[in-house]
Design a protein that fits this description.
Blueprint (H helix, E strand, L loop, with lengths): L9 H43 L4 H30 L19 H20 L3 H8 L3 H10 L1 H12 L6 H28 L6 H26 L5 H27 L7 H31 L23 H6 L1
Protein name: Transmembrane protein 121B
Family: Belongs to the TMEM121 family.
Pfam family, one: CECR6_TMEM121
């Protein structure tokens, strides 16, 4: 006799329970780190703004509460979306793998964070607060640099808190996007440090550096939404290329001015800017050709796949038998 569809033996349940518990603990740990980093960065920036100005201090705290609440709502909605997928509702498919719905609403969480964080940093850098921090605050400008760079581990904790399959294609794709964004942020931050030391001779170059840094900070909104999309289209390839162009092209121009006009030393990141522009362009051409070919021969659209979980892989109450899926 074969087991009925949707049934699960007690032995399979016992074997899969530790795996589900481990994933739950891991997700909870990263979600906790997300909230700790949000509160820490927001509190330090608020401290800088409140102690040296009287610019509506309560509004800065209210902004942080909105961001933390928004992330809390995101995690709740994301968890609900996972339960619905486990029950077979709202299935999504993509060439990146069957677990693509993991990133549902993640782009909104990061967008809220960028909108709240950007005005604070700009206000600190563009007023006398920066000089007062250097003179009167412990750790000075170094503390400000560390606080601003907390965005990088925050992004890592965000994508790690919602990934289910640690060996799946979705996780590898998200890690690739994260590493690219991390490199762009570090690249632009090297020039931002020169702005903090007043070593950028032109005001136009200074504002270019500031703008590029916040563009790089906002880029995850694009690829997080791409990870949520049901299928890969040419517009996502152009969006990915466009964000790389908006970051690397202005930084390359700034570094060319530094080297050829102001006779500053050549930075190794200058090679990175040229390399990334070339790689992104070749990637755009290659993938656009692939997508158009899939459209031409597929008829209904590129990369339409099933949700990859059969009824026999479902546990009671709609949860997925991850052990059965892994072994199949």
């Amino acid at each position: 006799m074969f087991p009925a569809a949707g049934s699960m033996t007690s032995g399979e349940f016992v074997q899969s329970a530790p795996l589900l518990e481990t994933r739950s603990i891991r997700s909870l740990m990263y979600k906790t780190l997300c909230f700790l980093l949000l509160v820490l960065q927001g509190a330090v920036l608020d401290f800088y703004l409140i102690i040296f100005t009287d610019l509506y201090w309560c509004s800065w705290i209210a902004t942080d509460l909105v961001v933390v609440s928004g992330w809390g709502i995101f995690f709740l909605k994301n968890a609900r979306s996972k339960r619905e997928r486990a029950c077979g509702f709202h299935q999504k498919s993509s060439i990146f793998g069957c677990n693509l719905g993991e990133f549902t609403y993640a782009y909104l969480a990061w967008l809220i964070y960028v909108i709240a964080c950007t005005p604070k940093v700009v206000l600190i850098l563009e007023t006398s607060i920066l000089g007062l921090i250097a003179l009167k605050v412990p750790c000075g400008v170094t503390g400000l640099k560390v606080t601003v760079l907390l965005s990088v581990p925050l992004l890592f904790c965000l994508i790690s808190s919602i990934v289910v399959d640690l060996n799946g294609p979705t996780r590898h794709h998200s890690q690739t996007c994260f590493l690219s964004t991390c490199l762009d942020l570090l690249d632009s931050f090297t020039l931002l440090e020169m702005v903090l030391r007043a070593e950028i001779p032109s005001v136009y170059l200074k504002y270019t550096v500031l703008s590029v840094y916040f563009v790089a900070l906002a880029v995850p909104v694009v690829w997080l939404y791409e990870l949520t999309a049901a299928e890969l289209r040419c517009r996502w390839l152009w969006a990915r290329f466009g964000t790389g162009l908006l970051v690397n092209a202005p930084l390359l121009v700034v570094r060319c001015f530094q080297v050829y006009v102001y006779k500053m030393p050549v930075s190794v990141f200058m090679f990175k800017n040229v390399l990334f522009l070339g790689i992104r362009f070749l990637e755009l051409l290659e993938q656009c050709v692939t997508v158009r070919r899939l459209w031409r021969f597929g008829g209904t659209g590129p990369a339409q796949f099933s949700h990859c979980v059969s009824e026999n892989d479902m546990c009671p109450h709609g949860y997925v038998n991850t052990l059965a899926v892994t072994q199949s």
